[in-house]
Amino acid sequence: MVGSRALGRQVFGVYLPLAAFLVFLLAPFYWMAIVSLKPPADLFNLRFNPLWARHFTLNNYLYLFRDTAFATWAKNTLIISTAATVLSLGCSILTGYALARLRFPGSGVMGMSIFLAYLVPPTLLFLPLAEVVGRLHLYNTYWALIFTYPTFLIPFGSWLLMGYFRTIPREIEECAQIDGSSRLGTMFRIVLPLSLPGLLSAAIFSFTLSWNEFLYALIFMSSGPLKTIPVGTVSDLIRADVLFWGPLMASAVLGSVPIAVVYTFFVEHYVSGLTAGAVKG
Amino acid sequence: MALLENERILGLLLMLPGVLLLVVFMGYPFFLGLWLSVTDSTIGHAGRFIAFGNFVALLGDSIFRQTARNTFIYAMVTVPFKLVLGLGLALVLNGAIPFRNAVRAGVLMPFIVPTALSSLGWLMIFDPIFSPISWLLRHWGVLTRNINFLGSPVLAIVSVMIANIWRGTPFFGVTILAGLQAVPHELHDAAAIDGAGAWQRFRNVTLPIITGVMLISTLFSIIMTFADFQLIYILTKGGPANETHIFGTYAYQIGLSATEIGQGAAIALYMFPILAVLAILLLRYLRRDAA
Lengths: 281, 291
Known about the structure:
The complex is a heterodimer of chains A (281) and B (291).
Chain A: H1 2-36, H2 40-43, H3 59-67, H4 70-101, H5 107-118, H6 122-135, H7 142-148, H8 150-166, H9 170-178, H10 183-194, H11 196-212, H12 215-221, H13 229-236, H14 245-265, H15 267-276
Helix pairs in contact in A: 1-14, 3-14, 4-7, 4-8, 4-11, 5-8, 6-12, 7-12, 8-11, 9-10, 11-15, 13-14
Chain B: H1 7-37, H2 53-59, H3 62-94, H4 100-107, H5 109-112, H6 115-125, H7 132-139, H8 153-180, H9 185-193, H10 198-226, H11 230-235, H12 247-257, H13 261-269, H14 272-290
């Protein structure tokens, strides 16, 4: 009897809630995937069970590459995300190190400002930023996003790396300096290699944030050939007729897969990046 | 090279590239936004100074008042749901479950994939013809007609909130889980030996330790929900008949679609006092925590 009561508690306390969470959180992905694999005849026959497919087809995916600019959007997204990540990571390493280790005038104010910048949402500043990007003649160039994404990537990266650098014992650096290494030399040869997990977290997080960004890309890229996947999908694939659902879901799935793959490989780093702001240490 | 060994000079030099980017693309736009909001500028035309004309005009705009109301409802309803569901998710994930790592990786997906793309999935889930929810309810005999989720004001905002809760729950789940893993097993065992039941252990041992994480995640989530854009832009564009606008989408419509960039900047700036208060609360809490 004790065994069955424990089993009951396990079922009602753990398995049922877990199943409910999994259905709620994953069902939309299942729906997107199954729709993307159906031929139009099945999709539009409302008597068929929509949660399953009678016939499977990859035509929606082929359509994306043959009849839309999806491949170009993917290339654009990859170039922009990589460049914005490299630029932001470079800046964040320098600011993170300075804030963690060096005493210089204004460090307190700058550290605080960077933390506050982390909390500024894009919707607060996008209109004047559009004006600035226009004055710099950056509309419909990669630079429009490569320069603006760091506004949310650098604050995050500096914050995360500053915390990481502080966990590295000062004594290691001091030994290297006594042996004649310069301050910058110590940073590059001693501190950075020891911070590899932190750098990886910052890089993965920056890359996914850039890949996912929508508002700036919508405003700065929507009238040219340099659309990113989210913007291209939303602005070119949603049409007034009903035939677009298959390719639309295929594009949504394909645009999500790279992020899902990167994240699955580095889930520990992603989670430590995500919780760096919320959980101490 | 001796200059680079001077902490003061090296520190400022290292800050330079990052600070420069932030000043040009964040600091300057902030002040430009303040200026635009007190002018009648349109896109491409620098306007005249009209003092608080935009802000006053907005108070008399019924769509703006609806927008403000929607934004508060949107944040105040979804955040508690995300917090409670996230806490539940964290407690379940912290227990003995099969395929723990795979499950934990899977449930975070709504938060990590591009929101603009997953919102398209929701757009179809809420479609008046193809919605699988309508199909299931009809199939089970609950309904005889499809639900027009995004077509009526109340249903539309509820639908958008469900998608928002879906997207944000994993964020709370994973941050609170990280907090739970900091709870020492010994404390639980000691409380259990003293005769504390599961609820008492949760209430008196676990909860005090994860309160900080919950508070920080909540403040962070209020800021992000308050300033949301993508979900609503994709699901309703603020419709039907402007009934689901929030600050972000209405600022976009007025500032870019209608090219009234001065008034649009004023709409966005109405968010500022609330965001500032939340940011200060967060900063204060983190400082007390660090001390």
